[in-house]
Amino acid sequence: MFVATLAIAFLLGDMAPPFQVPVAHAQEIKERRSIIDFFFGGRKKRKQDVTDTKPRKKKPRNRNSVQSVTTADAPGTVEKLPDARKVIVVGDFMASALADGLVTAFATDPNIVIEKKTDGSSGLARTDHLDWPATLSTYIEEIKPKVVVVMLGANDRQQIAIAGTKEKFQSDAWKNEYQKRIDKLLEVARSRQVPIIWTGLPSFQSNSLSTDAAALNNIYRSRVEMTGATFIDIWDGFADEDGKFIATGSDINGQPVRLRGSDGLSLTRAGKRKMAFYLEKSIRSLADVATMPAIALPGTTDTPAEAVKAAPDIADIKVVPPVNLADPELDGSTALLDDALIPKSSGNSPRDRLIEKGETVDAPVGRVDDFAIRPATPPKVEPAG
Predict the structure, then answer these.
(1) Where does the signal sequence lie (predicted)?
(2) Residue 360 domain-assigned (yes or no)
């Protein structure tokens, strides 16, 4: 009777169960039984463990913030000299890839420091997001760079607001305003006597985007070269012989590698390094840095002072004795070019005869390609002595 009463009370909810079921065992994943389970038995039920761990909150990432990275942050970088030349890289997300390649390129050079000041969403079409002329002016005043590297245009395939109206991409009004903004950015560096290198855009997987990039490169080249700045075209390094996009090509060592990402926009590590390869020589030249560091030859440090003093100073040589061209006496001849030493010929080389007249030159007698048929020469018979 007591057991029956207890069971009825439990079912009606008036009493709590006399035992507690663990939470992990209480929350079982219920799976639907299939016909295979009906004939061959049920499968073991999977149990879901319940933990009290709280999910970690991810910090929001500001994609529009300007990235600031220096060459000193790269792994394997040598210590930079106190008077190392600073190079600023500004622009959009393509400029960010270029800066990464330059950081790798000059990681072992103590004379050059790369300052990465890029904004992936920036451009010249919209000044409400970021005004590059004003921003570049601030960077030049703070960092005092020797060279400024610019790469823009990947985000500029959009309308431009002019006096309250929006002009379509590549319209006449759009081009005129865009050229003015390029000139304004170039004027910031020119007024402060800082050389600027403008890098052109590479090809892209999208045909329309590549076409627009090529049109923008023509605008950049004309405006940059007009002001005397340096424009570097990298298109051929990321395109085939027809000028079309390639995802795989040769790296700076000539080895086939993947240069572009699967999205057709981004660049791989090898692609970034190849893009920087086009700028290395110009950066060293404008930054007044030797292409290769000076290498001390063996024994040069032990050269006697008397030998150094005895060496002629080329800067002091102003007059040299004349050279008699009629009798140089360099090869035993009595003239500059002895006519007797010139081989007599018709004046037409075998190449000229083959291309101009279609004639082939007879092979020398006895050579493997000498197929001429000649009469047999009877052997000489020595008279009996």
Answers:
(1) none
(2) no
Question: How many other CB atoms are found less than 10 A from the CB of residue 21?
Answer: 9
Q: Please list, in sequence order, all residues whose beta carbon lies within 8 angstroms of the beta carbon of residue 259, skipping any fewer than 6 positions away.
A: 238, 246, 247, 248, 249, 251, 267, 268, 270, 271, 274
* pLDDT tens digit sequence for 141-156: 999 999 999 999 999 9
pTM here is: 0.60
- DSSP-assigned states of every residue in 116-179: EEE-TT--SS-TTT--HHHHHHHHHHHH--SEEEEE--TT--S-EEETTEEEPTTSHHHHHHHH
Whether 108 maps to a domain, the answer reads yes
Q: Which residues pair with 260 in a beta bridge?
A: 267
CA dihedral of 306, 311, 315, 321, whole degrees rounded to 10: 140
Number of domain units in the chain: 1
Amino acid 184 reads K
pLDDT in tens, 342-384: 555 555 667 767 777 777 777 778 788 888 787 777 777 777 6
- Position 368 in a domain: no
- CATH code at position 257: 3.40.50.1110
In a domain, 352, yes or no: no
Domain ranges, residue 144:
67-286
